[in-house]
Amino acid sequence: MAISLGSIADDYTGASDLANTLTKNGLRTVQTVGIPDPSLALPDIDAVVVSLKIRSVPASEAVNAATKAERWLRQQGAGHVLYKICSTFDSTDAGNIGPVTEALSEAAGGGGVLVTPAFPETGRTVYLGHLFVGGQPLNESPLKDHPLNPMHDANLVRVLARQSRGTVGLIDLPAIAAGAAAAKAKLDALARTGATMAIADAIFERDLETLGEIALETPVSTGASGLGLGLARALVRSGRISGSATGEDVIRPVGGLSAIIAGSCSKATLRQIDVAERVMPVLRLDPERLLAAGPDQIAAAISWAGDRISAGPVVVAASAAPETVSRLQSQYGREASGHAIETATSIIAAELVERGVRRLVVAGGETSGAAVDKLAIPAFLIGPEIAPGVPVLRTVGNAQGDMLLALKSGNFGGEDFFTAALAMMQ
Ligand SMILES: Nc1ncnc2c1ncn2[C@@H]1O[C@H](COP(=O)(O)OP(=O)(O)O)[C@@H](O)[C@H]1O
Ligand SMILES: O=C(O)[C@@H](O)C(=O)COP(=O)(O)O
Fold first, then answer.
1. Which of 46, 56, 98, 329 is least crowded, fewest Cβ atoms below 10 Å from its Cβ?
2. What is the secondary structure of 369-389 as a DSSP string?
3. Which stretches make up the Four-carbon acid sugar kinase nucleotide binding domain (predicted)?
4. Closest ligand 2 atom to the C-alpha of 122?
5. Is 84 helix (H, G, I), strand (E, B) or coil?
6. For atom 3 of ligand 1, which residue has the closest CA?
7. What is the predicted ipTM?
8. Distance of CA 351 from the midpoint of ligand 1 (Å)
9. What spacing in Å lies between the alpha carbon of 292 and ligand 1's midpoint?
10. Ligand nearest to the CA of 334
C-alpha cells in the first residue's frame, strides 16, 4: 500500500468528515482508528485518515500521538500530511492546534505551514484571518458555549499565536486571488521572517483549490475538510491519482437493530433530538444523577433502550442546553463532567451493540471517540454522504462483524438528520 495523502485527525467525527470529502473528490480513502495493527487488511487506497482523540488532551500528549502517526503515514508513502482540525478551530490557549502543527512541521524539516479551517460547504469561511460560522463571527456563534472549548475570539492569527511557540502570519484573500505562485511566495516570505504558521483566508472552493496546490508543495498543512478538498483536487489534477472513488459499494445492508447516541450539546444536535422525538422514543439522561449515581443511571438507560429497540430505533441523549451544561460544570468541573458523560454514553452504546445493534449513529466528536474506542473498531470504509461532513461508515476488522455507523459532528446535519441517516443504513 503506497498512499499519496496522509492525514491525522484530532477527533473521530472530524476524521470521517475529511474522509468523506476526500472520497467525494475521488480519493480511495480509509479512516483508521489510531495507527492500525499491521495485521489489519486494507484495500488499495490513495489516502489514509488516522483518527486520534487529541483535541482536548494535554498538548504534550497530543504532540506525542500525532508525531507517531506522522511517522507511520510517511512509512506508508505519504508525501504530504494534513493535520485535520475542526472547522470551528476548537482549541484552547493551551493547544492543541499550534503545538501539534509546529511538531509535525519540525519532524518534516521545518518551513512555514499553511493553516485554514475554512469549509465553505458548511458555512465556515475565513476573511482577514477572522473565522465566520454561517453569518456570524466565531465568538458570536453557538461555539461561544461549547462545553469543552468555548471560542471567544474570531481572530485566528491571535488565537493560534496564543497556543504556539513561533509567530503566526496571514495570507490574505488578495494574495490567494493572485494565484498559487503569489500565495506560495507569501508563505515563504513569512517563513523567512520566522513565522512557523500562516492562517490562510478562504471564502470559496476556488480559494481552497489554490491553497491545496501550494500545500502540496510543502510536507505538512493544517486545516478542515475545505483544505482536504483543495489537496484532493490538486492531486487528481496533477495526474498522481485517477480520482475514481465513489463509496457506493460500502452501504451493503448489515441488518440488525439501530440506535442513536447523542452527547453533543450543540444547537444543531439539540434540535435534531427534538425532531427525532416525533417519530421514535428518546431517553434524555439526567447528567446530574449520572454524575452522582453513575452505574445505576447507566443500567437504567440500558434497560429502557433494551425494552424498546426490537421495535425500532431509539435515541439516548445526554445533550443539554448551555445553562444546564454550565450548572453541571460549575458543580463537577468541565473536564470531569465531560469525561464522565462520555464514559456513560460509550458504555450504553457498547451494551446496545451487545444486544444486537448493528447500525449506530453517534452525535458529538468526543462522544463518538469514546464510543468507537469502547467498541474497539479498528477502521472504517467510507460510504456515501448523509449530510455535508457526515458519511455512512462501514466497519473493518471489528469483533462484532460488519456494522454501519454515522459519526456526526455536533454542529452538522439538518434537523431530520437522524432519520435521514438511518434511512441510508439498512
Ligand atoms: N448535559 C451535559 N452537561 C455537560 N456536559 C455534557 C452534557 N452532555 C454531554 N456533555 C459533554 O459535552 C461534550 C460534547 O462534546 P462533543 O461530543 O465533542 O460534541 P460536539 O461535536 O458538539 O463538539 C462531551 O464531553 C460530552 O460528554
Ligand atoms: O471540521 C469540522 O467542523 C468537523 O469535522 C469537526 O471536527 C467537528 O468536531 P465536533 O463538533 O467535535 O464533532
1. 329
2. HHHHHHHT--EEEEEEEEETT
3. 259-418
4. 3
5. strand
6. 325
7. 0.98
8. 20
9. 17
10. 1
**What is the rounded CA–CA span in Å between residue 65 and residue 34?**
9
* Cα distance between residue 359 and residue 327, in whole Å: 33
- Grid cell of 257 as nine digits: 437493530
**Spacing, Cα 136 to ligand 2 middle (Å):** 17
C-alpha to C-alpha distances, 178 to 171, 181, 189, 228, 285, nearest whole angstrom: 11, 8, 16, 21, 53
Q: What domains can be seen in the chain, in order of their start residue?
A: 5-237 (3.40.50.10840), 250-423 (3.40.980.20)
Query: Global pTM?
Result: 0.95
Strand 113-116, strand 29-33: pairing = unpaired
Set of cell numbers at residue 78: 505519504
DSSP string, 44-72: S-SEEEEE---TTS-HHHHHHHHHHHHHH
**Residues near 328 by beta carbon (within 8 Å), at least 6 away in sequence:** 287, 288, 291, 320, 337
Choose one of 284, 337, 390 to mutate for the ligand 1 pocket test, by most ligand atoms within 8 angstroms of C-beta.
Answer: 337
